[in-house]
Amino acid sequence: MEAPCDLGGRGVLVTRPAAQAADLCQLIEAANGRAIAVPSIEIAPTRDPAAAAALLAESWDLLYFVSRNAVEQALALVPDGRWPRVERIAAVGRATARALADGGRAPDLVPEQRFESESLLALPELADMRGRRVLIVRGEGGRALFADTLRARGATVYFAEVYRRLRPHFDPAPLLARWAETVDLVTATSEEVLTNLIEMLGPDGRAPLLATPLVVVAERTAEAARGLGFSQVTVAARAEDSAILQALCRVIDQHS
């Protein structure tokens, strides 16, 4: 596939987890950019796998996976990806849907446009949830919007927390020493990634980071970024790597 623009050798900080950064890095390199991988979140198994596994083995009217990480970690606990005791499966977006399909069963519900809980909640299949049992598969903590909304619509909602999000250890000195020459753009896929990155770069890295154009994948992350002090924030149309690259191209066009 032809690159949507020429990044002109610009350096792009890629903050996805290490195991999920390769595709975006390849797209950046194919667009004549320089991908700089700085994983700003680390995915680790849950502390209580037995509790999550027990919930995953039950019967559910709806099983909702909030991310590709949720799918991968759930399948590590309950390897039968056909989910025979589940009536419907929902995925937050295409990457999550692909992971489910690869595991044995494609999801029944996936948002058409923006890949987030709000878009999924707008589907007519979830309008009336009276008497339905719902299991949300996620990391420890996380947003309550989906659960609260479905409860208001009559569902009984449980959580299977199958992973933890950790902040990686990182020595920022080499990167900060050459930041002005090497880092032209930053990408982030969540508010937690942003706050982790700020902590990882330390006090000396805050000013250069906040001055660098930032691409995020949701408006709520953009609002958080502006609150943290980022002055140039662009929201990608979707959370997919191709949409992130297109957003990077928009930034380049605006500054050319």
Describe the structure.
This protein is an alpha/beta fold and 256 residues long. The chain folds into two domains: 11-41 and 170-255, 3-Layer(aba) Sandwich (Rossmann fold), CATH 3.40.50; 44-165, Rossmann fold (3-Layer(aba) Sandwich). It contains eleven helices and ten strands. It has helices spanning 22-30, 49-56, 68-77, 94-103, 117-121, 145-152, 173-177, 179-182, 191-210, 219-228, 241-255, and strands spanning 11-14, 34-37, 42-45, 60-65, 86-91, 133-139, 156-166, 185-187, 214-216, 233-235. The strands form two sheets. The chain has a five-stranded parallel beta sheet, sandwiched between helices. The chain has a five-stranded mixed beta sheet with strand order 3-7-6-4-5. Helix 1 packs parallel to helix 11 (241-255) and helix 9 packs across helix 10 (219-228). It is elongated, with a radius of gyration of 19 Å.
